[in-house]
Amino acid sequence: MIGYNIQNKDSFAEQARYVFRQLARIIGVKMVEVFDLSDTQATIDAMFIYGGSIPEKKSEWPFIFIAQSRYDLNATLTPHDIGTIEAKRADMPQHILYLLSSEMAQLPRPLYIDRGTAHTKISWDQNCVFCAVDVISTCFYFLSLENERRATDRDHFRRFQRDYSPLGEEIYTYPVVDRYAVLLRQLLQLLLPRLFFNAAWPDNKTFAVALSHDVDRIQTWTMRKAKRALRASNSPYKNPVGRGFRLAQSLFSPENWLGNFNFISRLEQRHGATSTFFFISQHRHELDPTYKLSSPIIRQGIETLRKRGCDIGLHGTIPSATTNGLLELEKEDIEFLINDDIFGGRQHYLCYTDDTPQFWQNARLKYDSTLGFSYHTGYRCGTSFPFNLYDGARELPLIEIPLILMDTVLFLESKQFLSAADAWVVIEQHLEETKHNNGLLTINWHNSDLHPFDVYGYSQLYVKILQWTQENNGWLVSLNQVYEWWCSK
Asked: What is the second-level CATH architecture of the domain 2-191?
């Protein structure tokens, strides 16, 4: 058991408790708040002390002191507020950005220095660690989405985009919270080499990859998409005749007109994987999908998916992200069709405002997986792990499973438009980061972009992800399974 003590009970205490609760699951320890450091509790193995002054009395337990900065909840941080710490040891995360820190005395053995000033920021000796970086405030800034609340720019769907960040978009390149969780786990091991940590994932899996598919369209091809494929400059099939023949094979493949549900579920089955398919039930906006749940293709497709162990989730319409009451109706439509409960959802076009979590709760969703970027990959919430959402005032019972990587971000001409070879470089970087942090990589690969006889080579990339995950002891899993596992921790 790990204790945590918050010195300042008046300012930022609830936010700090929220962060400690999220970190406990990620690190893999049980945490309990200790209000009085003079009370001896035999069940405590070590202590986090978060505050402004190092305890004068020697602690009963090994402790990690994290200096609390003067964090103004109403202040907007700028790129000048960002610092980076660098490790002095090869076995620790090599660099992590921080937003807030304090000046404090340090112990004889330095662990991290500031990249800019070379000042020691984290040090240790015997049974204590001193950390001048305000890890708790930095983690809160990401988990609570405070950075985007400070941003004034939104696109025409009222969405926050990565390049609107007041702190610059580079802060979303790697999962800051995950790296701090790894660091805190290693600091605990430094003080207590025999400390037991709960497994991050079942069956001693090193990391997890959550597979999901937004069903925006049933048929693979449109006339515009087919014409684009014929002139594709980034196709691995460079010969136009060969590319045309490949396209003809694809056009005449029945799978490509039936949603690819059989193809995808068989492919995942061969790799011991399951996934979540998000279906929409209404057409409320001109950009909402137009298929009908009553369609025989949809009904047969859903039946096939469920027989093979796939989950069915709710793909909320564009208006449902900003209008209360719509999600309940949309969820009821799908639940009626499958005669079962829907656990989670993802908004179409990744539409999200500060009001949307309340609509999810009203619809009695247990988890969401909307929070990612529609034009970039990256870590919008600072973490790859599931966590309880924070609405700006309080912790919510709703679990967010952050979306990290979406196929269309990599491939569309209006976005990054990468070749399959270049896209794999990006994907592999995320896989390596996830493996290193024992994290979770949540992927959205649209059903219409995963099909036989792919002209671009993108479908083969999905297979490559499955193979890489298996070869590196990863768990290929659906979002429902992630939610159930996380709630059991």
From this structure: 3-Layer(aba) Sandwich (3.40)
Task: State the virtual CA torsion across 337, 338, 344, 349 in degrees, nearest 10.
Answer: -50
CA 36 to chain centroid:
35
438 with 201: CB under 8 angstroms? yes
Q: Is beta strand 83-87 parallel, antiparallel or unpaired with respect to 474-477?
A: unpaired
> 3-class DSSP state for residue 436?
helix
Say if CB 48 and CB 63 are below 8 A apart: yes
Q: Where are the domains of the chain?
A: 2-191, 202-488
What six digits make up the tokens of 438?
């024992």
Q: What is the pLDDT along the chain (489 residues), one digit of tens a residue?
A: 999 999 988 889 999 999 999 999 999 999 999 988 877 666 899 999 999 888 776 667 899 999 998 877 677 788 888 999 999 999 999 999 999 888 888 899 999 999 999 999 999 998 999 999 999 999 999 999 999 998 999 999 999 999 999 999 999 999 999 999 999 999 999 999 999 999 999 999 999 999 999 999 998 877 777 777 666 666 777 777 777 778 788 888 888 889 999 999 999 999 999 999 999 999 999 999 999 999 999 999 999 999 999 999 999 999 999 999 999 999 999 999 999 999 999 999 999 999 999 999 999 999 999 999 999 999 999 999 999 999 988 999 999 999 999 999 998 766 777 888 999 999 999 999 999 999 999 999 999 999 888 887 889 999 999 999 999 999 999 999 999 999 998
CATH architecture assigned to 202-488: Alpha-Beta Barrel (3.20)
Are the beta carbons of 310 and 276 closer than 8 angstroms?
yes
Name the E strands within 34-155. 46-51, 63-67, 83-87, 95-98, 109-114, 120-125, 128-131
